[in-house]
Amino acid sequence: MAKQQEEVYFVFMNFDPVYERLRADRSKEGSATLDAYLSHKHDKLLAKLLQLDSYRKRSSLAIVDGFAVEITEDQASVLRSAKEVRVVEKNQELA
């Protein structure tokens, strides 16, 4: 059986009151706290749902509480079924 191709997907999270509170703090320290919180939150979700070393998170996106990750379509389906996740979309290259 051939290995599925990994592609970049964007994962957007459901409402999180902690994220909303942290996002309201526009200071430099507040921004750093928000970045650290989201990175940890997104890493924890991936570790809970996907096998270690089977994905590569590219970045967390603080403006929308989401992240970019290189995964297979099957892994995207797993993420779509998580209660914490609002939507998972494959990156669309613009020509």
Automatic annotation (TrEMBL):
Check the record and name the InterPro entries matching this protein: S8pro/Inhibitor_I9
Give the source's domain of life in one word: Eukaryota
Span of domain Inhibitor I9: 49-94
* PANTHER family assigned: OS01G0220500 PROTEIN (PTHR37379)
This protein is called Inhibitor I9 domain-containing protein
This chain's source organism reads Urochloa decumbens
